[in-house]
């Protein structure tokens, strides 16, 4: 037993002398490779504060902020499904105005780009019952005159015109992608 005790002090002394000798170890220069004697890990500390939410401004530089939502576009276009996927990949969803102020923000973006955009609502499940992407029923609307009309029986998505009015439209056409974050 005394032999093990003496050996452990000898090893400890050797490691200590190597790790504290400036000539033999400069942790900064050796990427923290200095020898050390590891012990039993301690308890974990309390979790740190949450980080800030990432900024999507680099993906969508042109936007409007209303009621805590930010509506943005990068000027690209896509079908309804492609637009939904693009917004989801950027950490948002397809613009889904729930008030006249939010609708006005989206309208300003489409007007600036001179292109209609899909909104994040459709009546794919039940004709005539428009639902948001999350499954809740649409309460706020801003339909153009005589809309929605399901022309040709193939208009299940909603587009917003340059004047802010809505039209039901086929989901396969290409429209400006406007996301909300």
**Based on DSSP secondary structure assignment, what is the total number of beta strands?**
10
Which band does the percent of strand residues land in? Answer: 15-25%
Poorly predicted parts: 3-32, 55-59
What is the H level of CATH, i.e. the homologous superfamily of the largest domain?
Answer: Mannose-Binding Protein A, subunit A
N-to-C span: 67 Å
> Can you summarize the main beta sheet?
4 strands, antiparallel
Strand order of the largest sheet: 1-2-10-4
Q: Considering DSSP H and I runs of 4 or more, what fraction of the residues is helical?
A: 10-25%
Layout of helices and strands:
Layout: H1 2-20, E1 62-66, E2 69-73, E3 77-78, H2 80-89, E4 93-94, H3 100-113, E5 117-122, E6 131-132, E7 157-160, E8 166-169, E9 175-176, E10 179-180
Antiparallel strand pairs: 1-2, 2-10, 3-9, 4-10, 5-6, 5-7, 7-8
Q: Can you walk through the features of this model?
A:
The chain folds into 2 domains: 1-36; 62-180, Mannose-Binding Protein A, subunit A (Mannose-Binding Protein A, Chain A). Helix content is 24%, strand content 19%. It has 3 helices and 10 strands; from the N terminus they run αβββαβαββββββ. It has helices at 2-20, 80-89, 100-113; strands at 62-66, 69-73, 77-78, 93-94, 117-122, 131-132, 157-160, 166-169, 175-176, 179-180. Residues 3-32 and 55-59 have low confidence and may be disordered. It comes from Phrynocephalus forsythii. Residues 1-17 form the signal peptide.
